Amino acid sequence: MKTIILIAITLFTNLVVAQQRLDTIYANDKKNVALFFPEPIRQGITGASNFVFTYNREKEQYFGLLQATLGTESNLLTVTKDGQVYSYILKYREQLTKLNYFITPKASIGNEQPKEIKEKPVVQPQNLNPNRITYFQKFSNYLLKSKYEPIATKRKKGIKLQLQKTVYNGSEVYLVLEIKNKSEINFEINYLNIYRANGNKKRKASFQKLEQMVIYTFKMPNQVKTGEKKRFVYVLPKFVLGDNEKLQIELKELKGSRRVILLN
């Protein structure tokens, strides 16, 4: 009986490992390896610098190109427009037997948002001192009333996202933002996230981003109606961008596909 149980456990363990095993893609520095996805690529990240995955970040495309130099093995993580996630092991090989990979939806390892989020309000940390909240409110209100010169602006499909001020105060940084809706459809906000994006376009390296914690928001809207503009403030823990880092602000529509990404 113990032998049967041991065999059953071994078979189950092997099955789980097999399900988690990732396919391997080989590349070198002499040829381009093309990966064709079922939906346009939104983001692609390699784990090591000797592998480079390039795709069009300005115009939606279904394929990306992979190259590699001799070095340690790595991995590729790709997210498509519909949120599906694909993951592969990457290895260098001098001679390539396959140059084109046509990836099906079944190859996805999951979705970045498994369930549709009907509403995602910004949750403030529960351990904030009431005095700190009062200070955040007063200082944010002061910033909204003060003069500004736009730092960075991004427009897409009638939606304008603008970073108007970046102010360091104490141990926090305040971001004054504006959303303007020039489209004919009201814009309901799913989320507005702040990231530190790390990458070097000159080396064709994929951008990697790290989401930043938001301590407090002031006058953050749930929606921006047609013809309206809304100004608000995000309060984050103080941070300083590195030499190859950029501030990335990503705005996503709740019940639609509109997404605005601002890099500064």
Describe the protein.
- This protein has 264 residues and is mostly beta strands.
- Helices cover 13% and strands 44% of the residues.
- The protein is built from two helices and 19 strands.
- Strand 6 (74-80) and strand 7 (84-92) form a beta hairpin.
- The longest helix is centred in the first third of the chain and has 19 residues, at 2-20.
- The protein starts with a helix and ends with a strand.
In short:
By secondary structure, this protein is mostly beta strands. It has helices at about 1-20, 130-145, and strands at about 25, 35, 40-45, 50-55, 65-70, 75-80, 85-90, 100, 110, 150-155, 160-170, 170-180, 185-200, 210, 215-220, 225, 230-235, 245-255, 260-264. Strands 1, 3, 6, 7 and 9 form a 5-stranded mixed beta sheet that branches. A 5-stranded antiparallel beta sheet has the order 10-11-12-17-15, with helices on one face. Strands 13, 14, 16, 18 and 19 form a 5-stranded antiparallel beta sheet that branches.
